[in-house]
């Protein structure tokens, strides 16, 4: 009668452990039903679920593996598995799969305990945990470090909205970002990333910088903040702000462009995306002049923003063409996806303001980046504690994969 065995081997990592154990199993014509291996701080854990055919007995197999494990100074444990138990395990493979991503400057035991507790309470079983970030130097500046752990979970939550709400509450309380995604074919097959510009790709609102140069900074900033909170319609707030810029000298544009602060992680993110074959776009309610400047600096593929009207060297307070508001951003995202022959599931959208919500809602992966509470609560995913390159972790990129 065939037997099913779970074999666990652990000890100091050394070359050839897996090869030696599977060679013994091969001599007895064993079938490998499942296998997993992990190395943490030079300590190996190897697990194999194997089927010993009826033509072989398990006793010689166990004896040979025990001898080899002792020879390699490894610990070994065997556990017989009933066919009924194995059948139940096989039946679970059709369950929904999800990815929970924990991002922070440093990962703490408390964060992992809370995340896994929430997952458990909502009917999810975690079957794999991986560190995506690089190894952390204990003496490194905690304001610049990046840490990320990815959990693979199976199961069906009775209330996904409640689960997301619980993760959001944890995120605020633990100074960490927690992303929850369906683990499907699109997650690692996205090909277009659309960015808002102001307060996303750059750590500034260009219209506020123009207003300061025009001597109306406080008035414009007040309107901008109300619009970002969703208290004012974008077109209305935009028109009011633009009117205050009338008469500004064109010469200040270049000076402002050259001093725009690039958001942490933006350059690494975009250079990595380009190497991976992604297309990138700026969809901004700001101005083309500054979008084109960033396009040259960062290597962005597409730029769509408002055309600042200048007559006789002076800003008129108007824009040319269609105003890029929230609805227009979503429309442009759809057009770019079609142009690149992509489904919306293959698009990532990133923004911080209320006018970004329409495009965040239709993208396969919509990310509120360092966003206002209203936007963060409405978006499917949010990053507030890391730089823009934290987005790489949400698509499963590991720091060791750097090209």
Strands, helices and their partners?
Layout: E1 3-12, H1 17-27, E2 31-40, E3 43-52, H2 58-71, E4 75-81, H3 83-91, E5 97-104, H4 109-121, E6 125-131, E7 147-154, H5 160-174, E8 177-182, E9 192-195, H6 206-214, H7 217-228, H8 234-244, H9 252-258, H10 266-275, E10 279-287, H11 288-298, E11 302-311, E12 314-320, H12 326-339, E13 347-351, H13 357-362, E14 365-369, H14 373-378, E15 381-383, H15 391-394
Parallel strand pairs: 9-10, 9-13, 10-11, 13-14, 14-15
Antiparallel strand pairs: 1-3, 1-4, 2-3, 5-7, 5-8, 6-7, 11-12
What does this 3D model show about the protein?
This protein is α/β, with parallel strands linked by helices and 403 residues long. The protein has 3 domains: 3-91, ACT domain (Alpha-Beta Plaits, 2-Layer Sandwich); 95-182, 2-Layer Sandwich (Alpha-Beta Plaits); 192-206 and 249-401, HAD superfamily/HAD-like (Rossmann fold), CATH 3.40.50.1000. The chain has 15 helices and 15 strands. The protein has helices spanning 17-27, 58-71, 83-91, 109-121, 160-174, 206-214, 217-228, 234-244, 252-258, 266-275, 288-298, 326-339, 357-362, 373-378, 391-394; strands at residues 3-12, 31-40, 43-52, 75-81, 97-104, 125-131, 147-154, 177-182, 192-195, 279-287, 302-311, 314-320, 347-351, 365-369, 381-383. The strands form 3 sheets. The chain has a 7-stranded mixed sheet with strand order 12-11-10-9-13-14-15, with helices on both faces. β2 and β3 form a beta hairpin. α4 (109-121) runs antiparallel to α5. The longest helix has 15 residues, at 160-174. The protein is elongated. The model has no long low-confidence stretch (mean pLDDT 92).
């Amino acid at each position: 009668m065939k037997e099913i065995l779970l074999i666990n081997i652990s000890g100091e990592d050394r070359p050839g452990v897996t090869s030696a154990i599977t060679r013994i199993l091969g001599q007895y014509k064993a079938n490998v039903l499942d296998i997993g291996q992990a190395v943490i701080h030079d300590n190996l854990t190897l697990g194999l679920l194997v089927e010993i055919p009826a033509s072989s007995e398990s006793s010689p197999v166990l004896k040979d593996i025990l001898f080899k494990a002792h020879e390699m100074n490894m610990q070994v444990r065997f556990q017989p598995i009933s066919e009924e138990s194995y059948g139940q395990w096989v039946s679970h493979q059709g369950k929904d799969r999800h990815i929970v991503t924990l991002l922070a400057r440093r990962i703490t035991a408390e964060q992992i305990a809370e995340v896994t507790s929430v997952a458990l309470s909502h009917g999810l079983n975690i079957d794999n945990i991986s560190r995506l970030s690089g190894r952390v130097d204990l003496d490194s500046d905690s304001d610049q470090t990046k840490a990320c752990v990815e959990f693979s979970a199976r199961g069906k939550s009775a209330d996904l909205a409640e689960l997301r709400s619980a993760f959001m509450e944890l995120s605020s309380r633990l100074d960490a970002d927690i992303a929850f995604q369906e683990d499907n074919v699109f997650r690692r097959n996205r090909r277009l990333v659309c960015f808002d510009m102001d307060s996303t790709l750059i750590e500034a609102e260009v219209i506020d910088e123009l207003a300061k140069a025009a001597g109306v900074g406080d008035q414009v900033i007040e309107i901008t903040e109300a619009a970002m909170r969703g208290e004012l319609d974008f077109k209305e707030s935009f028109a009011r702000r633009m009117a205050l810029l009338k008469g500004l000298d064109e010469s200040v544009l270049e000076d402002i462009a050259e001093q725009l602060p690039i958001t942490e992680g933006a350059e690494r993110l975009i250079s990595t995306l380009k190497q991976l074959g992604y297309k990138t776009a700026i969809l901004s309610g700001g101005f083309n002049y500054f979008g084109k400047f960033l396009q040259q600096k960062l290597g962005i593929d597409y730029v769509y923003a408002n055309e600042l009207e200048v007559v006789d060297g002076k800003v008129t307070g108007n824009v040319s063409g269609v105003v890029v508001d929230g609805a227009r951003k979503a429309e442009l995202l759809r057009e770019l996806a079609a142009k690149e022959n992509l489904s919306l599931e293959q698009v990532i959208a990133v923004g911080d303001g209320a006018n970004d919500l329409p495009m965040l809602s239709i993208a396969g992966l919509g990310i509120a980046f360092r966003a206002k509470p209203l936007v963060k609560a409405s978006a499917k995913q949010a990053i507030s504690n890391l730089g823009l390159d934290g987005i790489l972790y949400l698509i499963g990129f590991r720091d060791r994969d750097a090209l």
